[in-house]
Write a structure and sequence with these properties.
210 residues; little secondary structure
């Protein structure tokens, strides 16, 4: 009998490891649209309707959220490292302090989202929409922002070192105090961008708008 119990526990633990996430947490999210400090790592939520969901401090490492609708969702302090959020709708979402290192956000809509103090280092942000987004004090180091829309975005004190901004739209973005050392700005559009205490790709300081 004891051996059977040990065997059952082992199978349960193996199943949990295989999924990576806690099934109860996933069920809670899908039924209530709220799961604070939950374990949803590697969960498959692609295409899910999670408008206004509360996922504060939740572990979503490696989660599949491609094409998910997370409009106005609260993902502050969540861990979304290596998550797939390609083509996801994050309009107006709260992503303050969120970990998005190496995440895939290509073609995602993050317009009007709050990503202040978030970590997006080495993330794929190609063709993503960050118009009017708050990216102040955000870590964007070594990100792929090729053809990204950053028009009117707040990039004050953002770390853009070694970021790829080829053909990106930075029109009217606020780059006050931003660090752009070694960033690739080839064919980037910067009409009306605010440059004050901005460190340019060559390491010089641009105070044009101070």
């Amino acid at each position: 009998m004891q051996n059977q119990i040990v065997y059952t526990i082992s199978i349960t633990l193996l199943a949990m490891q295989a999924f990576g996430y806690d099934r109860k947490d996933l069920d809670k999210l899908l039924s209530t649209s709220e799961c604070v400090k939950c374990d949803l790592s590697e969960a498959d939520l692609g295409g899910s309707l999670l408008m206004g969901a509360t996922l504060i401090s939740t572990n979503l490492t490696g989660a599949k959220l491609q094409e998910a609708n997370l409009t106005n969702a609260n993902l502050s302090e969540a861990n979304l490292s290596e998550a797939n959020l390609s083509e996801a709708n994050l309009f107006g979402a709260n992503l303050t302090g969120t970990n998005l290192t190496e995440a895939n956000l290509s073609e995602a809509d993050l317009s009007w989202a709050d990503l202040s103090e978030a970590n997006l280092s080495e993330a794929n942000l190609s063709e993503a929409n960050f118009s009017k987004a708050n990216l102040s004090r955000t870590n964007l180091r070594e990100t792929n922002l090729q053809k990204a829309d950053l028009r009117g975005a707040d990039l004050r004190s953002a770390d853009l070192r070694e970021a790829v901004l080829v053909a990106a739209y930075l029109n009217e973005a606020n780059l006050d105090g931003a660090d752009m050392r070694k960033a690739n700005l080839y064919r980037a559009s910067m009409g009306g961008a605010i440059l004050c205490n901005t460190i340019d790709p060559e390491g010089g300081k641009n105070n044009k708008d101070c």
